[in-house]
Write a structure and sequence with these properties.
This protein is mainly β. About 5% of the residues lie in helices and about 35% in strands. The protein contains 3 helices and 33 strands. The strands form 6 sheets. Strands 2, 4, 6, 7, 9, 10, 12, 13, 15 and 16 form a 10-stranded parallel beta sheet that branches. The chain has a 6-stranded parallel beta sheet with strand order 1-3-5-8-11-14, with no helix packed on it. The protein is elongated and about 95 Å long. About 0% of the residues have low confidence.
Length: about 400
Amino acid sequence: MRCHDEIRTDSIWANGNITLESTWKDVTPGNPIQVSGYLQSRGNVKYDYSGEGNGWISGGVWGASVEIDHNQVTSGDVSIGLIGGNDSVRGAGAVSIEGSYDLTSTDIFLNGGSGDIRYNGSLYTYDTSYGSAYNGYTSLPTSYTNPGVTAPSVATPDIPTKPDPVYVDRNGALNEPGPDLQDKNVDVLYEAGLTSTVNLLEPNWFHFQTMAEMDDVSNPGAPHMIYDNGPGDSGTTLGEILFVWDATKPYSSQETVYNGDPDVDIIIDKLHWQHVGAAFEGTIVSRGDIYISSSDTNWFMGSEQILNLVAGGEIMSRTAGLTLAESNNCHYHFWAYGDIRLENMRFGLIGVNTFYGSFTAGNRVYYADNSFWTSTEFKWSRWALDPVAWVPPFKVLTWREV
């Protein structure tokens, strides 16, 4: 199997060769191969990916010859479990295990560094942590036998056809003939204007401003009302607020950060919430655009944490290959009066978990095939922001007690 995206599979047992290969893709930084089980073959086994992200073969490798290669210097490790006894890799011929030339740490670990290698004739390892290596191994796994499973039958329903136009007379009578039909009668499907845009109700920006001002009073150690070249801006570019939310600032859960200038954009350069524990929620609001960026490549959120983004313009990702990495039951809720553009971003899960969230845009939501749909299980959830934030401002003119 050769592809450009991630490969995730259970155990593979074959009589012929096994090849799992994922090469570099222009719009993502990594394409890990994750095998939840073993790779076992009476032929040759090749496991090779170039890119960031952790890969693994949890049940070890066994084949006539074995080649394991990971080519990415900056991040991501490969872990290999045990195929039997204390053996992580068994090859009846040559074995080659080559890491990514990490400058600071080991890249490939066999059973945490204690797993053994068995081979016959030739062994090559680089940037690999293992226990012992034993030459002269000639055994192959047993032949695979197909149990003969009968493929289920699948019903193929007909594709429904477009319904015929329903004509209604303008006085309410169905199919009433008029003097020239096409003028007197109305095509209901056409008149519905189903391709028309939806005008979203804008938030009550003053509500979010008030929440941020109250948070500034209760927690003055972290900026909540943020300004271009002022509090909350870590950069120097005019018209942009380079915003960082991590352990360097004492933010608390359920706080609001607010930019009230529609001509200024928020650039979220870093979001790292792992230090705050579970059940943490934060809201970032901008009258202008919100850019999802990162000098550290990835964002991180822990279990049960919630991020709300509200933009008076657009929400866009501008760091190619940015991954929003989260644990179980994280929630991302994005609301933009314009577009939500996530073409060069993806959502990645740490383990087999579920990501929840919602995306609301006044125009369109864009995403690429390498985004959250191929990297995580996505489920819709209702966001927890106060609905009062979308109540139009009003003034009480008169009132009477009843």
